Every structure is written in structure tokens, then in C-alpha cells.
Amino acid sequence: MILIVDDEALNRKVIQWSLKDLGHEFVHAANGQEAIDQVKAHENVALVVLDLMMPEMDGFAFLEWHREAPVEVREVPIVVNSALSDMDSIKRALKMGAYDYFTKPLSGDALEVLLPTKVQNAIQSAAAARSLRLHAEEMHAELASAMRFQTSMLPKAVDFAPLGVEYVYRPCSLVGGDFFDLYRLGENVIGLIIGDVTGHGLKAGMMSLMVRSLFREFIARDARPAVLIEELNRALLGVFDVGHYITGVYGVFDIEAGTLRFANFGHPSPYLMKNGGAMESLEKRGHFLGILDNVLIEETEIAFGEHERLVLYTDGVTETANPDGEELTPEGFSKLVAARGGDDPATWCRGVLGDIIGFHGSEEFNDDILLVSCWTRKSS
């Protein structure tokens, strides 16, 4: 349906005659308010041909209403047909969202060829834009659903006493490639993995879910870090595309023995915050997984007792940049960690995240942010 808006009935009839072969129905309005009423009454208006000089409510006022209307209305293109031929009026109408502009009176060729062609192009262009918007909305809804699923898969840290765990996760898009999981291996033995799959978005999210699934399968066979990581690497070699890989840290806490046995595969080094506030960077590195047949895996055991805290994170944390483009860096992050050393463990991660947001100047990040804190809970 095409809406023709002009205070002169003859002009409306001439425009309708010009566009009769396009196969659309027509409705008319004599001023801007009547045009608004017609748009509200007919959901299938595909285009508006608009005069500017009209009584009660002129075309400029209609354009103002149009650009503040819901998106379905804003997508309806407007072709202006006005006696105003000065450049200021033309610029004003186009800046307010008019698709095209013709000055009255239209010549015979313009009525017969130019106007119908421009109108048809405008309708087709609007239809294509609407289709893209609806497709984008559908994709966004699917990604939001995937995000809810991915979030639901995160471990319930409260279920892993006597190990205390807090974490915060901020994917840069609706679905992220960072992941974290916990595994109960015994009454007082807890396995933990933090990982980062290359890339962002849906593909990275699907790959991270696959890795977590493989990890759960392998940990039931042999939970030793070096053995498990080598087996995981072999499995990923036949799955990951060229150029894709995963970094991470996998550790096993033995709460009764007061130890942590862990291995790092190409991931940023965790920090151990000791009783009294001293910090140690656990710089045991290894190869990332999914590219090389043989990977270097260095398994290490350290003491881990009460009043100590293990801090793990993904590279999105240290690569976060401030408004001047300067990255936080591992050194800068370690200062944030040390500064909040005395905070309540249950809220520590959220406090550090607030510091990272303050440094970044925004809650929108260019990479996934995952921060994990672990400590030994006191016996009740």
C-alpha cells in the first residue's frame, strides 16, 4: 500500500495515476496528522509520497514524527514531492530521513518514468533492509538462548566445599570462548580447569562446550594433569580447524593434604596469594593444545592451605585497554590483585572486576573476561 499525502486532491490523483502500474493499493491524506492516522490504521503501508507545505500539520512535522516512531514505521521510506525547491528545504528533508526528493510540478517524463522507478527502488530497498533486520533479530535471539545455555553450564561453586570458589564471567559477545569447570574427584579432592578457546562468538562458544565435554570424559579415566592434558590434545588435533587452539590451566586440589597439583598449557600464569599478602606468580608454562602432536606438559605440586588464595584469569583481563589504548598488562593486574588481598573471598572477584571496569572506562569489552578465585574453606 502506498500513502499519498498532499493537501490538493488533484495532486494526489496525479501521483496515484503515475504509480498505478506498480501493483499497489493507495490511501490518501490531506495533511501530516491524517497521514499519521493512516499509517497507524494500515500496517501494510510500503511507502509514503509526502508534500511539505500543508495546513494543520506540515510534511516536516510528519518527518519528525516518523523518525521517532517504532522501527517498523521508520523502515517505511518517504519520497518527498514538494513545491519547495530551495536547497535548505531539500537538505532538511533528507536529513530528517526522506529517501528521495522531487519538486513540483513533475514533468511528463518524471511522472511516467522517474517517479515510478524511484518509488519501486525505495520499496525494494526498504523490504531488503526489513528482511535483514528481522534476520538479525532472529540471530540475536538464538545467540541469547545460547548464552543462557552456556551460563547454565557454569559450575555451581557452592557445591564444591571444602574448596571455596568465586568467579565472574563477561563474554564480549553473547557467547564466549572462555570457560571454567569444577570436578569432584573425592570427598576432599577437587579438579578445576580454566580455558580460553581462540576467537569469540558462537563458534568459540561451541568449541569451549566441546572441550568441557571431552574433559569430563577424560577426567573419569585418569585425573592426573599431565596424563589428562596429553589425552585432550590428541583428541583436539582431529577436531580443531587450522589456526585454532586452546590455552588453559588444570589443577587438582587435595584439601586434606593441603596441596595443589597443576599444569599450564600456554595460559597466563595464575597467582598464589599467601597468608600475609605476599603474591607468587606460578610461572609454569606449557604448549597450547590442538596444534602440535607432541606438547610440553610440566606438572607441578605446591602447598595450598588455609588463608591462601589461587587467582586464575584469561588474557582478556590483562589485555584490557584504557581509553588511551594502554593495556592493563600482567603487572597492572597483579597490583589490582594485591590491593584487594584482604577483601572477603566471596566478593573478591566482583571487586576486582569493578577495578578492571574502572581502568577500562566501560563495561563493554573487546575480549572475554573470566576471573576465578579459589581458597580453602574453614571447617564448620
Description:
The structure is a single chain. With 380 residues, the chain is an alpha/beta fold. It has two domains: 2-144, Rossmann fold (3-Layer(aba) Sandwich), CATH 3.40.50.2300; 153-376, PPM-type phosphatase domain (Phosphatase 2c, domain 1, 4-Layer Sandwich), CATH 3.60.40. The chain is built from eleven helices and 15 strands. Strand 9 (246-254) and strand 10 (259-265) form a beta hairpin. Helix 1 (9-19) packs across helix 6, helix 2 (32-41) runs parallel beside helix 3 (59-67) and helix 7 crosses helix 8. The chain starts with a strand and ends with a strand. The mean pLDDT is 87.
Question: Which key terms come to mind for this protein?
Answer:
Phosphatase 2c, domain 1, 11 helices, 2 domains, five-stranded antiparallel β-sheet, 39% helix, single chain, five-stranded parallel β-sheet, 380 residues, alpha/beta, Rossmann fold, 15 strands
- The total count of helices amounts to 11
**Strand/helix succession:** EHEHEHHEHEHEEEHHEEEEEEHHHE
Strand content: 15-25%
Largest sheet: 5 strands, parallel
